[in-house]
Design goal:
This protein is of the alpha/beta class and 228 residues long. The chain has 8 helices and 9 strands. The protein has 2 domains: 45 residues, no CATH class; 165 residues, Vaccinia Virus protein VP39 (Rossmann fold), CATH 3.40.50. It is globular, with a radius of gyration of 19 Å. Bound molecules: S-adenosylmethionine. The site of S-adenosylmethionine has 21 residues, from α5, β4 and α7. The site of S-adenosylmethionine (SAM) has 21 residues, from α5, β4 and α7.
């Protein structure tokens, strides 16, 4: 492989953790530093063109919440698979998923623990002209009273994106699954970090979801797990 290509591959894979394992690239002979620096700079430039969080102007989003929104195009792709269902979004955040579900004709109940974030989600839903039932609360405490066709769970990942992790480490998930009334939901979908060791998932089907922007279309943005 030419040095320039080796530098490019190393730059793209730097820091990537996949399926619970950290990827290490070793080039022999070593790529010279200036070439490596150039490749890293190019990768940083590419990464600026990520899949957009929201496409419409006027949405509320801040630096703290920007990173965790499910990008609109990806949220819509998933939501189309849930058309017209009744959905509970247990970790609503800025409404990335809740809005997409509502745009696909779903009746959506969205729960969020943080009042300010919930306010931004409600504003964003208005920008998209969709109606969503928002509720402030802790999903772990209220899940036992909820039911519907689909339960969507996108818990905060925190530092789990920076190291290999296992299913039990995702906040709230184990407790939610335990507290669910039997048969309360026909389907349960969970958004998981690419760093998760898929061998630790409960019985489910799962697939990687890639970005769609110039900079992240070769990157797994998240793992979409569907519990059986
Ligand atoms: C990863 S974000 C969800 C992002 C959302 N899917 C979107 O696209 O905008 C997780 C959200 O869950 C909220 N959260 C954390 N723990 C919660 C809990 N126990 N109950 C309800 N919401 C919770 C956080 O405040 C955060 O806004």
């Amino acid at each position: 492989m030419p040095f320039a290509d080796a530098a490019d591959v190393s730059a793209r894979l730097r820091g990537v953790i996949l399926d619970g394992r950290r990827i290490r690239v070793i080039c022999e002979p070593e790529v010279k530093r200036p070439l490596m620096r150039k490749a890293l700079l190019l990768e940083a430039r590419r990464m600026r063109e990520k899949t957009k969080a929201f496409r419409r102007k006027g949405v509320r989003i801040d630096s703290g919440t920007r990173l965790f929104v499910t990008p609109e195009d990806l949220a819509m792709k998933l939501a189309k698979r849930a058309e017209n269902k009744s959905v509970v979004d247990g970790f609503c955040g800025l409404g990335g998923n809740a809005i997409a579900f509502a745009r696909c004709g779903c009746r959506v109940n969205a729960i969020e623990i943080d009042r300010r974030t919930l306010g931004m989600a409600a504003h964003n839903a208005a920008v998209y002209g969709v109606s969503i039932q928002f509720r402030i609360g802790n999903i772990v405490e209220i899940i036992s009273e909820m039911s519907g066709d689909l339960l969507w769970l996108d818990p905060p990942w925190g530092e789990l994106t920076r190291r290999p992790c296992v299913f039990d480490e995702l906040p709230g998930l184990e407790a939610i699954l335990k507290k669910l009334k039997p048969g309360a939901f026909k389907q349960i979908w969970i958004k998981l970090p690419p760093t998760i060791d898929t061998a630790t998932l409960p019985d489910c089907c799962f697939e990687p979801v890639f970005g769609e922007g110039q900079g992240d279309r070769h990157r797994i943005k998240f793992i979409w797990a569907r519990i059986k």
